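Standup notes
- DV: blocked on the single-chain target, sequence here:
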Amino acid sequence: MEPDIVVITDKITKKEIVDLAKKRFGDMVKGVVDISKEIMALGGELHADEEQVLLDRGSSQKDLWGINIYHAMSRGDWVEFDSMINIRPSQGNRSRSVENEEIRKKIVVLVDRMITD
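- DV (later): unblocked, structure below
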């Protein structure tokens, strides 16, 4: 496992998100959300690295979605749905985005609940 990847099962502060972002990309942190287990992995260089951490913890591939969190943006805009791991024709998702609006909403609610000010 990559040393900078953290698995969030409950809460993380916005300051911790900023600290994770500083280690890699500065303005954002990559993350993978498990919409079934309601957990997320953050801080990897690649979404695939975070995805592997969650798979190793028993997550199911169909429940994992890659996002980017831009910590300086407002909560309504800070989640970007852009990851190679989101390309899943077998689930009807043919792009790097998350095309299913219901799944997008689940991700945003989960992220907003887990990141505290």
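- Follow-up: Residues 6-116 form one domain.
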